[in-house]
Amino acid sequence: MKQRCIKVPKKKGESVRRVLLEFELLDHSLRIASDASYLYLPLSGEPEASELAALPVEAGSELTEFEFEPLERKPTLEELLGFSPRFEVIGDIVLLEEEELEPAGAQKAAAAILETHPRVKTVMMPLTPVIGEFRVRDFEILAGERRTETVHREHGSRYMVDLAKAYFTPRLSTERIRVLEWVREGDTVVDMFAGVGPYSILIAKKARPKRVLAIDKNPEAVNYLRENIALNSVQNIEAIEGDAREEAEKFAGLADHVLMNLPHSAHEFLDSAVLLTKPGGIIHYYGMTPEDDLFESSIELIRAAAVRAGRKIEVLETRTVRSYAPHQYNICIEVRIL
Ligand code: SAM
């Protein structure tokens, strides 16, 4: 197919290609061609005089026409399957979220995801929801490499995690930034349920806190937390393997911020959270609540815990983080403990 193009001596080809990309003038549907001396760069439109002037061309360059071969277009996932499957990407692993698919359908979807997403190395299906004290899931590997460990990038940090051994979800990445914005330079932060460290490491890296205490009861999660502290070269953070209730006794009255990211049972740890919080410090409380009582009952539980300790509360912010199930929401409440 004949197409307008820029013919350029080979040694200038790459720099001209980059400028064309910047101007969005390169036709990506055609294969760039060459002969012994020249590169032929197909154009998606006619360059303006100012754009031509910006091209680093030299003697022998010209605007001309050339017979290009079309680039083969790979079919999209939807074209391969006839529908767009729901999935979540963690590092180079895809979690296929189509539980209702028959085994053969799930295999086909997994193979199609691998074919259309070159960076994905493993596709697996969660066999259970997030369960148990350590909030982990079982998986069936459907296609690709037989592993459940990966490295996920978020906000400039890397998190290594074995998804079958420790909790991690990228779905809280915006929420983590919201919490980060509360923390001031010199603050002490206690992350009672730190997992592999996505809140603690982000805060330690970006908020210039005095100290971050990252606690988790799951030994596997704490191993990855330690690994991730090293991977991201973070200094002012301590990984603590232990029960948040017991650890709270050791750090009473120390925290400017207490993070309670254990939404199904955070209310059971409120006495410990209040104990940790210094006067004027803030608890970031997560819960799972019904749509007709998003915040009130949780606020009353927090108030009751404060009163038990002879303290008062000031509610600073309430928000829904995400929808969790029909009529159920993951919520967060920021409360100052006076
Ligand atoms: N904050 C992390 C994140 O965003 O990825 C992890 C959150 S995950 C929902 C809750 C974590 O709490 C799990 O890693 C689990 O092992 C930990 N956990 C559960 N009970 C605990 C306890 N009593 N003390 C300390 N950690 C606990």
Q: What is the domain total for the residues?
A: 3
Q: Tell me the number of helical segments per DSSP (H or I, 4 or more residues long).
A: 10
Compute the CA-based radius of gyration: 27 Å
CATH top-level class of the largest domain: Alpha Beta
Describe this entry's structure for a reader:
With 338 residues, the protein is an alpha/beta fold. It is built from ten helices and 17 strands. A hairpin with a 2-residue loop joins strand 16 (313-325) and strand 17 (328-337). Helix 5 crosses helix 6 and helix 8 runs parallel beside helix 9. The chain is elongated. The N and C termini lie far apart (74 Å). It binds S-adenosylmethionine. S-adenosylmethionine is lined by residues 133-135, 167-168, 172, 193-195, 198-199, 215-218, 221, 243-244, 261-262.
Q: Which characteristics define this entry?
A:
single chain; 338 residues; alpha/beta; Alpha-Beta Plaits; GMP Synthetase, Chain A, domain 3; 3 domains; 10 helices; binds S-adenosylmethionine
How would you summarize this macromolecular structure in one to three sentences?
With 338 residues, the protein is an alpha/beta fold. The protein has 10 helices and 17 strands. The protein has a 7-stranded mixed beta sheet. Strands 2-3-1-4 form a 4-stranded antiparallel beta sheet.
Secondary-structure blueprint:
Layout: E1 2-9, H1 10-22, E2 33-34, E3 38-42, H2 49-54, E4 62-67, H3 77-81, E5 87-90, E6 93-96, H4 103-116, E7 122-126, E8 139-144, E9 149-154, E10 157-162, H5 173-180, E11 188-191, H6 198-206, E12 211-216, H7 219-231, E13 237-241, H8 244-250, E14 255-260, H9 270-276, E15 277-290, H10 296-308, E16 313-325, E17 328-337
Parallel strand pairs: 6-7, 11-12, 11-14, 12-13, 14-15
Antiparallel strand pairs: 1-3, 1-4, 2-3, 5-6, 7-8, 9-10, 15-17, 16-17
Helix pairs in contact: 5-6, 8-9
The site of S-adenosylmethionine has 20 residues, from helix 6 and strand 12.
